[in-house]
Design brief:
Length: about 725
């Protein structure tokens, strides 16, 4: 991260500051998700949005036990629009992690080498990161059969008819192409074409597009393909999904094969042999950025060897073998008009600066986070001065920054422009929504005071109720179309027992209650007969819900989407999960040990789960919800022929032929569950030199133990 004195670098955050920052990032990303995906009116560019995610991921990597229930770290793209049919990606379309500094490039290369356990630096490719819309083109027996957007990474929008109008995309592949191949790349609009399109829209009285990326996305998502055909769209191919046979041995050669088939590929893609070469190519591309005929927001680095890519595998939402090096932040000065307090789902009071709108890098910014009361006072980590101790006051002229480390954030105060009557900001000690005390808790283990002040009102606080409901219906939870933030606030505020929504179960009883009351939703402004019908249909469609979505949607503190998926996979069904949580909440040591043993969960998450399910009112709310919905069992990974699918595996001791991370990733790819400790439910222990208590425990329980060579033999060829 940048060593900017006016920022809080991730590596200097303590637990309290990290928790506050994760809360801010979650709210900020959710805000931009709503603007970008729901309203087609983004305030920031893709690069800025990705940078927000980068900081979130970096903090979670440093404090994995602080992952929030509403964490954006695993979200990919957006849900499929109702106007398009769904296409399930055979291989998920994931996002890339981001980095912003030269040091980050060196770290990325080191991490790749460390994961693989190698000394020599592998070859990488480097290419411009196109600012467009991700697309997957499926060809069967040489013919284009389906084109799909990334969507949420698993399900995309079927835009085949529209894609066929783009002349650069072949309808047929030449002889010799695999029987099945998904060519992936970016649909974009050239700068000159964008300018011409906006001029035409202006002359025709149409709506102008904000930038080429939005123009490309809007053009591709037209219901009528004839409209798309009239828009100047272009395409670059750079990746692939499902394949019936390998394309090549390297990333570079696979992309060259796309070129041989007639796909446009980026001419600035090169091979690099070191971090310094990657950085040099980044500098070259950056210097020519303004001269390119299309928008880019960084440079993408990928391990060239496809065999090494296979070994490196994937994280929950991104590959380990690739990353995006983003272009640097931009700054501007503006005036703080007010400081407002937002109350989050967990009661956190987050200050937000309301700014005199200012354009930074072509985007208008009117709000910026102020993190917490210490940040406003100019107090940083462990009491150290922040901004050289300069506090932030209403009326101040401040420097804000977008992209890079934080977006947008106040990074400095210009004291020479401070009004004489500007007073220090007094942070509230009571909740502005319910009047309950707002306190900064003290960590019992460390004795440190939490950086975040929280409302003690709990469920009596309307802000927390509303934010919990917003989380419940959010995209990666129940994803109920027609129940956005404004609708949730509307239903929560209604003084009508037949129409109000105060708890999740109220959502699923809404239609029955409405039909038995005097008022009808269709009579309220903003609700017509069609929209009400669509809302009820959307609610009905979510009565059957994926297990991880339900767990995530409950809004349990520290249970982000990643942990929800880990739990769903570990327990398999809601019945098993719920039974274990209730037993664990009652203090059963064996159940708690099994929960703690789930690789990636940890003591903080386990405590949050047992605390939640230990509360009678939480269990009552869950039981009421279960009377209206049916949780689906977790999907098992596609592991045909895997001898370890469904088995719980523990690695112990030193591994000499692969790193521990690589071993875990391989086991999970083959459908195994990796645990951190041995229990009665362990099926297999892979033991290397130096194995200790885990090996002893396995022998006591009669669990199969094999060495590293036997493990490699067992999974050979998979």
């Amino acid at each position: 991260m940048p060593a900017d004195p006016f920022l809080l670098p991730v590596d200097s955050l303590d637990r309290e500051a990290a928790a506050a920052e994760l809360a801010r990032l979650s709210a900020e990303i959710a805000h931009h998700d709503r603007l970008y995906h729901g309203e087609d009116a983004p305030e920031i560019s893709d690069a800025d949005y990705d940078a927000l995610r980068a900081r979130n991921i970096a903090i979670e990597a440093r404090f994995p036990d602080l992952v929030r229930p509403d964490s954006p770290s695993l979200r990919v793209g957006a849900p499929v629009a109702a106007t398009f049919s769904e296409v399930r990606h055979v291989r998920p379309m994931l996002s890339l992690d981001n980095l912003f500094t030269d040091a980050g490039v060196h770290d990325f290369v080191k991490q790749v080498k460390s994961f693989l356990g190698i000394v020599d630096t592998p070859v990488f490719t480097a290419e411009p990161k196109i600012d467009g819309l991700s697309m997957s083109l499926r060809y069967e027996r040489g013919r284009l059969v389906t084109a799909a957007t990334r969507g949420d990474g698993t399900m995309g929008e079927n835009v085949t008819a529209n894609i066929r109008t783009i002349k650069e995309i072949p309808d047929e592949l030449p002889p010799g192409a695999p029987d099945v191949v998904e060519v992936r790349g970016e649909v974009y609009m050239k700068k000159a074409d964008f300018a011409a399109l906006n001029e035409r829209m202006l002359n025709e009285g149409g709506k102008l597009f904000a930038n080429p990326r939005n123009a490309a996305a809007g053009s591709l998502r037209q219901i009528d393909p004839k409209v798309t055909a009239g828009r100047p769209l272009s395409f670059f191919a750079y990746a692939w999904g499902d394949l019936s046979e390998p394309l090549a041995a390297t990333q570079y050669d696979a992309v060259r094969r796309f070129a041989d088939w007639g796909f446009p590929v980026n001419p600035l893609m090169v091979r690099c042999h070191s971090a310094d070469e990657l950085i040099a190519h980044y500098r070259l591309i950056e210097s020519h950025r303004a001269d390119l005929g299309y928008d880019i927001d960084g440079v993408v680095y990928k391990v060239d060897s496809l065999a090494l890519q296979e070994r490196l595998g994937f994280r929950s939402r991104s590959p380990r073998w690739a990353t995006a090096h983003k272009f640097p932040a931009e700054r501007a000065s503006t005036i703080v008009k007010a400081i407002e307090i937002q109350v989050g789902r967990t009661g956190a009071l987050t200050p937000v600066a309301k700014l005199e709108p200012v354009t930074v890098g072509g985007v208008v910014v009117a709000n910026a986070t102020l993190h917490n009361e210490d940040y406003i006072k100019g107090i940083g980590q462990d009491g150290a001065p922040l901004r050289e101790g300069r506090d932030i006051r209403v009326g101040d002229t401040v420097v804000i920054q977008r992209a890079g480390d934080v977006i947008p954030q106040v990074v400095d105060v210009r004291l020479e422009l401070r009004p004489a009557d500007a007073l220090p900001y007094q942070f509230p000690t009571v909740c502005p929504r319910c009047g309950s005390h707002a306190v900064r808790e003290t960590n019992e283990k460390t004795g440190k005071v939490d950086a975040v002040r929280r409302c003690t009102g709990g469920l009596i606080c309307p802000a927390q109720q509303v934010e919990r409901l917003k989380h419940f219906v959010s995209r990666n939870a129940f994803d109920i179309e027609g129940l956005g933030d404004k609708q949730v606030e509307f239903f929560h505020a209604l003084d009508d027992a037949h129409l109000c929504i105060h708890t999740p179960v109220d959502i699923f009883t809404l239609e029955r209650r409405e039909s038995s009351g005097l008022n009808r939703l269709a009579n309220f402004p903003g609700f017509g007969a069609t929209s009400v019908k669509n809302l009820f249909e959307s609610i009905e469609a979510r009565r059957r819900i994926d297990l991880h979505r339900l767990i995530f949607g409950l809004g349990i503190r520290h249970i982000g989407e990643g942990n929800a998926k880990l739990l769903a996979r570990a327990y398999g069904s809601w019945d098993h999960f719920y039974a274990a949580m209730k037993i664990g909440a009652a203090g059963d040591p064996e159940t708690l040990a099994e929960l703690n043993a789930i690789d990636g969960v940890g003591a903080v998450v386990a405590e949050a789960l047992t605390d939640f399910f230990g509360e009678e009112h939480n269990r009552a709310a869950v039981d009421a919800l279960l009377s209206e919905i049916t949780p689906l069992d977790a999907e098992a990974p596609v592991t045909a022929g895997s001898p370890v699918a469904g088995k719980t595996v523990v690695f112990t001791g030193s591994l000499e032929k692969m790193t521990r991370d690589e071993a875990k990733a391989t086991a999970e790819r083959l459908g195994a569950k990796v645990a951190g400790s041995v229990s009665k439910k362990t099926d297999l222990v892979v033991a290397g030199p130096g194995a200790g208590s885990k090996l002893t425990k396995a022998a006591e329980l009669g669990i199969e133990v094999i060495g590293e060579d036997a493990w490699l033999e067992r999974i050979r060829g998979l």
